[in-house]
Design a protein that fits this description.
The complex is a heterodimer of chains A (372) and B (206).
Chain A lengths: L2 H6 L12 H7 L8 H33 L15 H11 L10 H17 L5 E3 L2 E2 L6 H8 L2 H12 L3 H32 L4 H7 L18 H14 L11 H4 L9 H26 L9 E2 L2 E2 H4 L3 H23 L7 H29 L2
Antiparallel strand pairs in A: 1-2, 3-4
Chain B lengths: L1 H27 L41 E3 L9 H5 L5 E7 L5 H4 L10 E9 L8 H5 L5 E3 L14 E3 L5 H36 L1
Antiparallel strand pairs in B: 1-4, 2-3, 3-5
Chain lengths: 372, 206
């Protein structure tokens, strides 16, 4: 145990408020020569995903969908059904972990794991606060777009390994969908990267801070930023297989798509991966277009709202709130729109989103070059 | 080309209007849908709000003249057995014992003053079988058999669905049967005695 690391390591709020102070302090913390701090650093987003999908993801979505359909949702387990998710987890834990006899056992078992790792790896570059980021890469945004492609491998492994026609159809559809929508998504994010001039997530966020609050966000910094913002939001829905782009699981046609054969904890891991990537894309869109951990409140005269609501702890609150807002919009869309047909899906990607993404790319470039 | 942009415009407008509708319902989830009945003028205007009824705790009352669970008021039952014969699915089973002459007062009268002539030790209705057709209630001469507004009577054990309405316990029924048998035996003996005397007289007269 090195003494400088120990002196740095104290309760989080005493670690200083400098950029990446918390995560660097954690990364430097070794116990008996073991990089325990790094493990904690990686465990924090993991615990966050688990807690958020347990509360907001499952319970919240059930309640939101119920309210949108004039129902009450879960009401029996605990007051207002708050403990319903705990009961669901208990049930999932007790379930038999079935591996179909004719399944490809290796692919079947690694499928959910790869899927989850794919969505979880992107959390490494998400700045959860000005003082906390898993890995401050200078190509953070590029890494986040690229590593998500690992999910495709997981989905394909799960769908192929299940040895089931529904699963295979679901997997193939999902792969076609994700690979197609990566293009408009990446070009839309490129517009944000052009406005920032960097791919470092932390720097992109810092560039959007200022005393005017939301006016510094990239969404309001250029007259065309709404277009890549919208394109990325639509494409991100498709990338995380959410309705109206949920044709890979299409209950009415494919039972449950690529996870038809999964049960018990493997099923839970697939769900965790879905909720993990939902927050991941929501966080990326808030970082690139809506200022990440920056407070949206402006300083109004002597009322310094922005200064009051800035800081590492506030930052964590802001980015989680922004992420949760976009997850709410995802759920809202899910309970509004019916599922797209496969050809409509491809039409939307190749004939609408991709051309508009190119247009917004060119317009953003012109704006950035010719407008100071 | 104009069709292309027209499609995009239609898509955007319809998505926006759809999301408006769902959001309206989402915010309306803070109150319940009104409970105006069909007779109320406001019935068709109560579109917004939660419509879930948390059943065991909240119940829409069944009509007062609702015809659900079958009930037999055994005090008025004269044991005629018409309901047993009328039931299309044989869900009523009945046993009767004739009331002895000295027991008539004990057996009593129906509420409209008719003398009951049968004990009804067994009057079992299998409410799980009963399809609430109401034929038994129409044939019942004393109107003791009726459907009640009770509609929820689920059970964990199927045998609990057989409702017992008989007015004698097994021991009482046994006693009544023995009494009837004794009376019958006595009557039989008397009859035989009479017949024998008559035979004697006849033979003596010859």
């Amino acid at each position: 145990m090195s003494s400088p690391a120990l002196s740095q390591f104290s309760i989080p709020f005493l670690m200083g408020n400098n950029l990446n102070a918390w995560s660097e302090a954690l990364a430097g913390f070794n116990l008996l020569g073991l990089p325990l701090g790094l493990v904690i650093l990686a465990a924090i987003p993991l615990v966050f995903i688990a807690l958020y999908s347990l509360t907001y993801g499952v319970y919240g979505e059930r309640k939101i969908s119920a309210f949108m359909q004039d129902r009450l949702g879960p009401m029996e387990v605990g007051k207002w059904g708050i403990l319903q998710t705990i009961a669901d987890i208990l049930k999932l834990l007790q379930k038999e972990d079935i591996v179909p006899a004719s399944a490809d056992k290796f692919l079947f078992v690694i499928g959910p794991g790869v899927l989850f790792v794919g969505s979880f790896l992107a959390y490494a570059v998400l700045p959860f606060s000005s003082a906390f980021i898993g890995a401050s890469l200078n190509v953070g945004l590029f890494y986040a777009i690229g590593i998500v492609a690992l999910e495709v491998v997981g989905i394909l492994a799960a769908g192929w390994g299940s040895n089931n026609k529904w699963s295979l159809y679901g997997a193939v559809r999902s792969v076609a969908q994700i690979v197609s929508y990566e293009i408009p998504a990446a070009i839309a994010l490129l517009c944000g990267a052009m406005m920032a001039g960097t791919l470092d997530m932390q720097k992109i966020t810092i560039l959007q801070s200022g005393s005017l609050g939301f006016a510094h966000f990239f969404l309001f910094q250029s007259p065309i930023a709404w277009l890549p913002f919208l394109i990325y939001f639509i494409a991100s829905l498709a990338e995380v297989n959410r309705a109206p782009f949920d044709i890979p699981e299409a209950e009415s046609e494919l039972v449950a798509g690529y996870f038809t054969e999964y049960s018990g904890m493997k099923f839970a891991v697939i769900f965790l991966a879905e909720y993990g990537s939902m927050f991941m894309v929501s966080a990326i869109i808030s970082i690139v277009f809506l200022g990440g951990w920056n407070s949206p409140l402006p300083n109004i005269g002597s009322l310094a709202l922005n200064d009051m609501t800035s800081g590492p702890v506030w930052g964590a609150c802001w980015i989680i709130m922004k992420g949760f807002f976009f997850i709410f919009v995802q759920m809202w869309l899910r309970w509004t729109l019916p599922r797209l047909r496969v050809d409509q899906l491809m039409y939307l990607c190749w004939k609408v989103l991709t051309p508009f993404a190119f247009v917004s790319f060119v317009l953003t470039a012109i704006w950035e070059v010719y407008v100071p | 080309m104009s069709e292309y942009f027209g499609n995009i415009k239609t898509g955007a407008v319809t998505i926006a209007s759809g999301m408006g509708i769902t959001l309206k319902h989402f915010f309306n989830a803070i109150h319940r849908k009104g409970d105006a009945g069909v007779d109320d003028a406001a019935y068709f205007r109560q579109v917004d709000g939660l419509c879930t009824l948390q059943y065991p705790r909240e119940v829409i009352p069944t009509p007062q003249n609702g015809r659900y669970r079958l009930y037999n008021n055994i005090e008025d039952c004269i044991g005629c057995g018409q309901c047993v014969r009328a039931c299309p699915i044989a869900c009523i089973s009945m046993e009767t014992i004739k009331v002895a002459a000295d027991d008539l007062a004990l057996c009593g009268k129906t509420s409209d003053g008719q003398q009951k002539k049968f004990w009804v030790p067994v009057f079992d209705i299998d409410v799980a079988k009963c399809m609430t057709c109401g034929i038994c209630t129409t044939v019942c001469p004393t109107e003791c058999l009726a459907h009640t507004p009770v509609s929820d009577f689920s059970e964990f054990d199927r045998s609990n669905f057989i409702y017992h309405f008989g007015n004698l316990s097994r021991l009482e029924a046994e006693a009544k049967r023995r009494k009837n048998a004794e009376l019958q035996a006595k009557a039989q003996a008397e009859k035989e005695k009479k017949a024998a005397e008559a035979l004697k007289e006849n033979s003596g007269g010859e």
